[in-house]
Every structure is written in C-alpha cells, then in structure tokens.
Amino acid sequence: MNREQEKIDDLDRLIEDALHSEPSVKIPDNFTDRFISRVQQRVLWREVISEFSVKIAVVAASLLVFAAIFYFVAVEDSGRIISFLSERWMAITSISIVLVFTFFADQVFLRYFLKKRQE
Q: Which end is more exposed in the chain, N or C (fewer Cβ atoms within 10 Å of the end residue's Cβ)?
C-alpha cells in the first residue's frame, strides 16, 4: 500500500507542476479564428468546384445525347458532318477551351471571391 501511495503522490506532484508551469507551446490569440476561416474557405472551395463539375457533366451529357440522336436520325449525313468536324478540330478545341475557362471563371472564381468577400 505504501508503494501505491508513493505513485499517487508522484502523480499528484506531476499534475501540480504541470498546472503551475507555463506551457511550452504558445498558441496565438487569433488561432481559432484563423483556423475556422481556413476551414470555411476549403468548404466553400469544394462546394463551388463540385457545383461546377455537376454543371459541366450535365452539359457534356446533353451534348452526347444530342450527338447520339443526331447520328441515328441523320445517318446519311453523319459522314459529311464528321469530316467537317475533323477538318476543323483545332478551331473547335480552341473555342471549347475558351468557353470552359470562361464558364469556370464565371461559376467558380466569381462565386468564390464574392462569397469570401461577404464573410
């Protein structure tokens, strides 16, 4: 019993020393505010990106459905249309990239910075 009492006393002294001494790590006063703002920014960024991804997926799926319907309805004209598109692939790709970038800037950057500014 005496040995157990010594362990308890040692533990009590350790606890007392820990409570009365200064912490070795200093946390700034605004730590929680900065942490919460960073978490909110990450959540906002994920929300905006996921909404953009859904919108792009809906547009891509709509274009695929339109292309499939057009292909099966106008089979005799499909060869002519495919050759027309393959001859102008560079212009079509450039226009598509510009449109996606513009859509991204409108849907992601503007919403992100406007919401961030409101907070």
A: N
